[in-house]
Amino acid sequence: MPGSSSAALTPARRRAITAAVTLATVIQTLDATIANVALPRMQGALGATQEQISWVLTSYIVATAICMPLTGFLAERFGRRRLFIASVVGFTLASMLCGAAGTLEQIVLFRVLQGAFGAFLVPLAQAVLLDTWPREKQTAAMAVWGVGVMLGPILGPTLGGWLTEYQNWRWVFFINLPIGIFTTLGLLAWLPETPVDRARRFDLAGFAFLAIGLAALQLMLDRGESLDWFDSREIVLEAVLAALGLYLFVAHILTHPAPFVQPRLFVDRNFAAGLATAFALGVVLLATTTLLPPFLQGLMGYPVFDTGLLLAPRGIGTALAMIAVGRIGDRVDPRLLILLGLGLCAASLHAMTGFDTDVTPRLIAITGIVQGLGIGFVFPPLTTVAFASLAPRDRNEGAAMFSLVRNIGSSVGISVVVSALSHNIRANHAALAEHIDESSLPLRLAIESGAWRIDTPEGLAAIDAEVTRQATTIAFLQDFRLMMWVCIAAMPLVLLLRRPLSVPAARHSAAID
User: Fold this and answer.
1) Does 512 score more than 60 pLDDT?
2) Are both 266 and 195 inside the same structural domain?
3) Are residues 369 and 483 in the same domain?
4) Are 250 and 275 within one domain?
5) What is residue 507's predicted lDDT score, i.e. its pLDDT?
6) Are residues 177 and 250 in the same domain?
7) Which of 133, 156, 261, 382 is the most buried (most CB within 10 A)?
């Protein structure tokens, strides 16, 4: 309810609204990663090539990026409750169509619809909670909701692996049906409607510039590694379109009398610094979960389901931290919590730079819990501080931009670590191979023990395989170190944030129990 007081809502109704919008967040964030592990099974069932099946992920990502900035306009034009319910229903129906798809073309089309409807869920949920709870309880509310935001990407591979292994790949989409039904009923029962502005005109040019820029950027980031980056004409074209589209969008909103996105959003110091920090958090959030499955499966030989179980402690750490933030968030400077969280993320990634192919499951779980704690300490207070001085009328658009920037950060992070991994494997292989000659003492000892032979093609192949294995291990550790430096580099951004104004203690009666 932008511009209205949250005092009209009872504590019970606030909690019910929080539960409903959190469920909506879960189905969207879960679907961002749950389909990844099912791709090989989809490829076989649909008779697609590796290049073709990748569009199941790419189509969803691009549709989400294009439609997410529409959240503010649509919520203001048609009402936030109507948009929210329509988005959940549309997302659920699109999920059912994905599960029932019989051809590659069908599933790509339905994934576009799924991404388009799902694009509104996270920013709408964020805006609803900011308007539902009084300021002194917004951090606690964001902590509860943030569990859904963070656990979706973390638990998605685990759940997707289990469903694919023991059920059928179609169930990674069908599982959204019960969640969607409960979410829709909750929103219908408890979520109030917001005022609508029928007079607001749609800025088609501004949206077109932004849509072209975002679509080209996402395609470039998603396909760059497979097409060898700027050696590909497609990537060059996408880079040019991304730069041109985003430049025209910025120029347009600064000169248009009624722009698609209000430039006053980015003048707010806390919101601008919050966007930058959210981008860095997005880089780390999904980049690490992208690296660990191939490390555990490809180098250590873990099956898909066991890999998912080893990723689960990260979600446990996130949940524990967010519970703690919900209890102390209104009594501690949120900037200190953000710094603590970034420090924990950096510490866990530093520990991961010491991994090898004999690393124990216990150490993997411990580093996952520490990193989860870090993410949990960053996200809720960051959201509260970023929106602390933003006018209520700008929350819908602000939430959309906040989620968009975090998603772009995730795309950039995944693209960077995958490209760095590929480059470093080649560089490390070349460097290690220089030491493989007959004068090498370890090689002589291995030959004498009968472990390797250099006088047969099989022996040489075995040596090359081991060099590749070691080069790949080092490349993963180099990526972990890179993510550690991203966390450290984000810390100075916290200095740009202003602490939200304190609120009277008498208002603390609206606590989240």
Assistant:
1) no
2) no
3) yes
4) no
5) 39
6) no
7) 382
Q: What confidence score (pLDDT) does residue 352 get?
A: 93
Lowest mean pLDDT among 203-207, 221-225, 302-306, 406-410: 302-306
Mean of pLDDT values over 357-384: 89
Highest average pLDDT, of 219-233, 234-248, 308-322, comes from: 234-248
Average pLDDT, the chain: 83
Nearest one of 376, 267, 365, 386 to 325, comparing CA atoms: 376
Decide: 323 and 143 in contact? Cβ < 8 Å.
Answer: yes
Same domain, 190 and 266: no
Q: What is the DSSP string of 28-69?
A: HHHHHHHTGGGHHHHHHHHT--HHHHTHHHHHHHHHHHHHGG
The Cα 477–Cα 480 span in angstroms is 5
In a domain, 177, yes or no: yes
Task: Calculate the alpha carbon distances from 18 to 14, 129, 182, 341 in Å.
Answer: 6, 7, 13, 24
Q: Say if CB 321 and CB 375 are below 8 A apart.
A: yes
The dihedrals phi and psi of 129, each to the nearest 5 degrees, come to -65, -40
**Can you give the residue range of the structural domain that contains 341?**
261-495
Angle between helix 55-67 and 39-46 (nearest 10) = 110
Q: What is the CATH number of the domain that holds 396?
A: 1.20.1250.20
Running DSSP on this structure, what letter comes out for residue 498? P
Number of independent structural domains in the chain: 3
Q: Which of 95-99, 127-131, 342-346, 454-458 has the lowest mean pLDDT?
A: 454-458
Query: Looking at the structure, do residues 276 and 249 belong to the same domain, yes or no?
Result: no
Same domain, 419 and 271: yes
Q: Check: CB of residue 222 under 8 Å from CB of residue 203.
A: no
Domain membership flag for residue 374:
yes
Q: Is 7 exposed, middle or buried (0-12, 13-18, 19+ CB in 10 A)?
A: exposed
**pTM (two decimals):** 0.79
